[in-house]
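Repro:
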Amino acid sequence: MVANNQALRDFIHSVEQADARLDNFSRSAESSKYEITISTLNSDVGAIVVRIRDTAGGRRILYSIPKRKMSVQQTYASELELAADSSFKNLDSYVRSLAGNLVEVTDPTIDNTPRAPSEYWDNWKQSVGHFYKQQIHPALIKTLQTYTPTLPPTGILVDLFGGDGDLVQALSETHLLENYSLDIFDNHSVSLEQAKAKLKKIPNVRVRPPTDLTLAKNIFGTIQGSPTIITIVGGICAGVINHQEAITIMRQVYRALAPKGLCIITGYTSVLLNSTEFKKIGFKIEQCAIVDNALTLSIPYQMYVLRK
């Protein structure tokens, strides 16, 4: 039974050792349901829960960590035995073996996150800009490199909430999309002026006039053709816009994308929508997370790759 599985016992031990604050564990094991639960009662930390449950011939694992929830879904009963395989020393290494479309991190606190005041955006890079330049943008570019073989050699990339053009500048330096036109949309006029200055020597970049993306009825109306790739970095995340605004923007994104086009979404704070909501809009989920980052909550742990 899974409850007696050495791999899971090792995992329990690793969780206990990982954080000394987790000192009030309650543990239950219902082997008949293939379920093991580990939780902490320390309200300052939040609940850590690991569940492995057999569900109609398949399996669902829930791995909850402070203020976040990571879910892993599989549809094969044989996966139940995989966790017991000697090649997986604990559940951590098992999850690391999974594809990014099988792992998702969501944040149940996002609806309670206040929107940043407008003046924050004048100097936001002083607080978190280094995360974007050193971690988030490189991770997105690496992800895009994985998918470019599935895309046409020429096309249009639109960077929504593109700000001062740092991502577009980094992309242009890779020559990954040198046959693409690159469009930047944002509502912060100062950032857009900075983008124009730093990108003026790159002929295939267009910095669009300031646009309130939460109010625009046709964000992509000025673009000649359908975007092949749309990137949204930090734009539909907690503290930036609200949940309904994110849905409205993503519906426009889906309508505008070329057939089989990609939308890649990540950020510093949690993405406001989850895979279920993206599917309802019409997207196929290619990826939800960078799995190694998800296990440690290293930024960026969310990396949604959505296909039209």
